[in-house]
Amino acid sequence: MSSTDAVTIPAPVDDLRAWQSVLAHVEAQLLDGTLSPGDHLPPERTLAADLGVGRSSVREAVRVLEAMGLIRTQTGSGPSAGAIIVATPQGAMSALLRLQVAAQGFRVRDVVKTRLVLEAAVVADVAGAASPDLEPSERLLDAMDSSELTPQEFLALDAAFHVSLAAASGNEVVTAMMAGLRSSIEGYVQAGLAVIDDWEATAARLREEHRGILAAIVAGDAFTARARVHSHITGYYTQTALVTEAPPTPETTAVVAAPTGTGHIALSRRTAEQ
Ligand SMILES: [Zn+2]
């Protein structure tokens, strides 16, 4: 039987091992911090040469890393050309939630409402923490200052920034939930691009809002941090007008509800998924 198998299954094992070794290598670098969100993956030829594998194996690993939501590749170029790290591995719970999200396609309104609850709590927690590790968040904001980023890359890093704040809170359950929701957050913010007519102005506003959120956290001002993260989330949601109803306002953040970004509101779009 094994001899028949050897004939009918033509040597995929070496290929499998090769791309898995690339995957393991990159994952290890993400876990030990050699690579972190905002960094670029080494070029395909460099990885292939360093690890002694074929470039096709590197391409396969890059596809898997992208499917895992850990990297984002540039559209219109080679599979690993300019691939940018957007997240670090977050473990089984977020992977399960991500699968759930992919399979069920949560409603955007529910995702936004969940974000408002989770992220208001997150920024208040971090603002009240004695010495939170905000370096990963700051690094992501620095990465988002680059004018080289495509809107898609920018928004992938934006979603990663919000997950990084959850990580800074030290609450592993909330972090896993945010990491699990990251792809659906990214999904609706990317879909919103279709109705943004001035991306540069929007990107400038989002950068400023992120810096404002972080500044309030650093100042230990939980109230302002909550207000700013709330208006940041509802502002983009309103701007991209994925629904025509008012943005959701959970009781926990009702007191600070004040959507901004009115200069770019476009209320004409209603998507089929809503
Ligand atoms: Zn953001």
Automatic annotation (TrEMBL):
Alphabetically ordered keywords of this record: DNA-binding, Transcription, Transcription regulation
Entries under SUPFAM superfamilies matching the protein: GntR ligand-binding domain-like, Winged helix' DNA-binding domain
Protein name: FadR family transcriptional regulator
Domain of life: Bacteria
Domain HTH gntR-type: 16-88
One MF annotation (Gene Ontology) recorded for this entry: DNA-binding transcription factor activity
Record bears the keyword Flavoprotein: no
